[in-house]
């Protein structure tokens, strides 16, 4: 049968005469506006559907947002005044408020709150979820995920009308309808190890191909006419019935449809699908551009009809129990019988690994797992063997110390981000493993700690590893550079996010009491702190003798209760001093892997070891369910992610279901220093999750504790002398280099090569988004420390430039003597 030809699609009138969005669009419904006149009444209806054509969007590509559909309130004195919202009859029986900005407020204390919460989790992004009032926000990505799960715009609007106390603003309804209308028109499909951009609408394809950025990403560089295929129904996945093309190359025809010519008659009446091939290294760029053009590229995998890729013999063991929140996340991924790419957010200890393994057992195709480091990769292999019946020979490990391919035609390959993105020349086993990873199709790619993926280094992973479905797992969907939104086109929308507080109440993770212990700094220490440079000040904060005493007190108290304690310190010098003074084991980046495993096993199994000191290498990929108490003596500036990750070390405590059990999280902060500012920023995420931080200003009877360190003025002065000498020497730089080398060798991707946090770009803030209720309800915005006497401190520092006591004069003379010795040695 001759191939079917189609005439060039006609120009779409709306595409050539599209109007621009109203200039009065406002990103917030509470923005004060003048009262609309008759001439401007049309602005209340937002941008007209007919005038917002594809061509106008193509001229100025920008992601769809609710600000494109402005909703104007009457002028009010208070910018947060929503009294103009019209209430529904019987609003007392409804638990949700909705604003024209897309914000949804849930009264968590309402009797029907649990039923409304299921709807809000499905259609909106959770912003803040303390005990009594929760805040959600409708976003384009959350609505895309809802439509992908099978909800129609009409279903969403009807459900909101049923649960909201006030009438649904008309601009919100139009925003929901627009998101539902544009979703699913474009698909990004992997077929025979090549990526194709497909659509059933020729006008949509024309808009995409006319975009210069997408045109540069075509594999044929625009020299070939897009392929035309006939598919059964709307599901144009791997199971294509027939094909016909218009100007496509024979190779493209073979890739799209195979070589079976007997199916031509069956597909003659099927809908026509238009497709263009995309370069492998430009997949993420195309997905990002499609999102900006308001045609999000849908990535779904019809794995049940994939008869090309080999099946993997893998199933969960009979005794495996899937918890309700894990089942909900899997239902979001496989709700329509296909595997949707996206992200699952579960707190530490809630079973993220089992969710990824269960997804692999559902798809039953080749699996790639990307971990943050070699220790995490080994843990993933152990978890696969623990929860599934997979043959151990079918699991390949590709890390710095082991490179073992799997036996058979398919299997599970576990590696690290660093191994995949390494640009150095490869040889031998590494070259063969990279070839295995990049030259074949995979059914599923699991990205552990997926929030590292937006980094420019790792964006290439999405293109070089060809996977039909991508599942991102993380506990903290946070980045201090505000690039988390990039995951929406690199991986997919957020499929599910569990509430930390609810899981702790249900017993799936431990209940935690959080406390911030304020440690006043002795006057001689504080004087030197004010004189020190910005780089040395954290050392004085960490070595505060009052903080040391607080740490000693808490360790002794909890060891007497039989608790296992982890003490974290980002400052390696302080870590070593604390551990040696208290005679406890410690681990940092310079510790060898053999010694690291030996110390961890000793902590897990020995009753004689109740306390372990850790540097930032323990932030992630460390499974210590025996730990029930965490003490933090120094941290990474204002990192919210690190605070949540460290809290996760005690969330999986084995004793979590014991009657009256509580885990404890202590953050020791030097009072009246920059640590208080950073501490408030770090706690914002946990406060939004419902955790409350109790401030402790005095530990009971600490001065009466026997053997209290640095209890005399002489001991404190000797400690200060050591700290000053350390600040002047270069030994701490050597320790930092060892720490950085350890992080790099372990493949830990949360820090830069120097072991420091990546610099934030664009002046992004660590605090919550403006307009949230967290400042009024959860306390996240109000938990900030302000130094109201900066000028007084400056005057005090200027007055104290010269030492006045014999002690400090002796220190100054010692510094001068050392400096002369160094100068004399260099001249000789």
UniProtKB/TrEMBL annotation:
<keyword id="KW-0238">DNA-binding</keyword>
<feature type="region of interest" description="Disordered">
    <location>
        <begin position="251"/>
        <end position="270"/>
    </location>
</feature>
<keyword id="KW-0347">Helicase</keyword>
<dbReference type="InterPro" id="IPR027417">
    <property type="entry name" value="P-loop_NTPase"/>
</dbReference>
<dbReference type="InterPro" id="IPR006935">
    <property type="entry name" value="Helicase/UvrB_N"/>
</dbReference>
<keyword id="KW-0378">Hydrolase</keyword>
<keyword id="KW-0539">Nucleus</keyword>
<protein>
    <recommendedName>
        <fullName>DNA 3'-5' helicase</fullName>
        <ecNumber>5.6.2.4</ecNumber>
    </recommendedName>
</protein>
<feature type="region of interest" description="Disordered">
    <location>
        <begin position="1"/>
        <end position="59"/>
    </location>
</feature>
<dbReference type="InterPro" id="IPR014001">
    <property type="entry name" value="Helicase_ATP-bd"/>
</dbReference>
<keyword id="KW-0413">Isomerase</keyword>
<dbReference type="InterPro" id="IPR001161">
    <property type="entry name" value="XPB/Ssl2"/>
</dbReference>
<keyword id="KW-0234">DNA repair</keyword>
<dbReference type="GO" id="GO:0000112">
    <property type="term" value="C:nucleotide-excision repair factor 3 complex"/>
</dbReference>
<keyword id="KW-0547">Nucleotide-binding</keyword>
<dbReference type="GO" id="GO:0003677">
    <property type="term" value="F:DNA binding"/>
</dbReference>
<feature type="region of interest" description="Disordered">
    <location>
        <begin position="754"/>
        <end position="828"/>
    </location>
</feature>
<dbReference type="GO" id="GO:0006289">
    <property type="term" value="P:nucleotide-excision repair"/>
</dbReference>
<dbReference type="InterPro" id="IPR032830">
    <property type="entry name" value="XPB/Ssl2_N"/>
</dbReference>
<dbReference type="GO" id="GO:0097550">
    <property type="term" value="C:transcription preinitiation complex"/>
</dbReference>
<dbReference type="GO" id="GO:0005675">
    <property type="term" value="C:transcription factor TFIIH holo complex"/>
</dbReference>
<dbReference type="Pfam" id="PF16203">
    <property type="entry name" value="ERCC3_RAD25_C"/>
</dbReference>
<dbReference type="Pfam" id="PF13625">
    <property type="entry name" value="Helicase_C_3"/>
</dbReference>
<keyword id="KW-0067">ATP-binding</keyword>
<feature type="domain" description="Helicase C-terminal">
    <location>
        <begin position="549"/>
        <end position="703"/>
    </location>
</feature>
<feature type="domain" description="Helicase ATP-binding">
    <location>
        <begin position="333"/>
        <end position="495"/>
    </location>
</feature>
<dbReference type="GO" id="GO:0005524">
    <property type="term" value="F:ATP binding"/>
</dbReference>
<dbReference type="Pfam" id="PF04851">
    <property type="entry name" value="ResIII"/>
</dbReference>
<dbReference type="InterPro" id="IPR001650">
    <property type="entry name" value="Helicase_C-like"/>
</dbReference>
<comment type="similarity">
    <text>Belongs to the helicase family. RAD25/XPB subfamily.</text>
</comment>
<dbReference type="InterPro" id="IPR032438">
    <property type="entry name" value="ERCC3_RAD25_C"/>
</dbReference>
<dbReference type="GO" id="GO:0016787">
    <property type="term" value="F:hydrolase activity"/>
</dbReference>
<feature type="compositionally biased region" description="Low complexity">
    <location>
        <begin position="22"/>
        <end position="38"/>
    </location>
</feature>
<dbReference type="InterPro" id="IPR050615">
    <property type="entry name" value="ATP-dep_DNA_Helicase"/>
</dbReference>
<dbReference type="GO" id="GO:0043138">
    <property type="term" value="F:3'-5' DNA helicase activity"/>
</dbReference>
<keyword id="KW-0227">DNA damage</keyword>
<dbReference type="GO" id="GO:0006367">
    <property type="term" value="P:transcription initiation at RNA polymerase II promoter"/>
</dbReference>
